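Allow me, if you will, to draw on your knowledge of protein folds for a short while. The matter concerns a single protein, recorded as an amino acid sequence and a row of backbone structure tokens. Kindly check, if you would, that the fold set down in the tokens agrees with what the sequence suggests. You will find the record immediately after this paragraph.
***
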Amino acid sequence: MPLPRPAIVLLSGGMDSATCLAIAKADGFVPHALSFRYGQRHAIELEAAAAVATAGGAVEHRVVDLDLRAFGGSALTADLAVPKDRTPEAIGSGVPITYVPARNTIFLSYALAWAEVLDCHDLFIGVNALDYSGYPDCRPEFIVAFQEMARLGTTLDTLTVHTPLAALTKRGIVERGLALGVDFALTRTCYDPAPSGAACGHCDACMLRLKGFREMGLEDPAPYVNGERYGEELSRGR
């Protein structure tokens, strides 16, 4: 029987990365979870990441501190308003102000450094090219380019960057996660949560998340402000 292989899983604490962790585990990898405290306004996601890492069977969970607020350029790392109540068409067109410049490039580079130390040839990232917010670093072409760069620039010449959610809708991600036993109540996705950690229900991340659960005929188990699913109501035209 082949020995289990280690894998680095980028874990934000949201529904996508939680499902990604579950997939890595189900595929027989020994997952090492990696999260970042990068000056994001929704730092509550790190508490979720810790809970998800434990529940998801990560053998180790590391949180790296770096300060992307030094550059700003995003509503997640600067004093800019988070867009709210956008239509699905608006969410899917153009690059929104919640895009953090080069974030996935930076995160994958840190993951690559850890992978080289562990002699680990597999990275998992929960990027999604469907039902996403127009982020350029979620595109398949970017992942292919990063993987080629990583193979050329490190000792990991067979490294693979796995993107198991790339072709899934949010509904598909919910369905896959539930099939693998992901506890979505532990996850947090909102870009502009209340001080309590409850989701706003209005931002793009909330709208897309609620869409996935609604299409499955399920209620999102994560907490929302006042217990209301504003995004769900808006997406139904109410």
User: Anything to note?
Assistant: The chain has one domain: 5-189. Residues 230-238 have pLDDT under 50 and may be disordered. Helices lie at 15-26, 44-55, 88-91, 103-118, 140-153, 170-179, 204-215, 230-235.
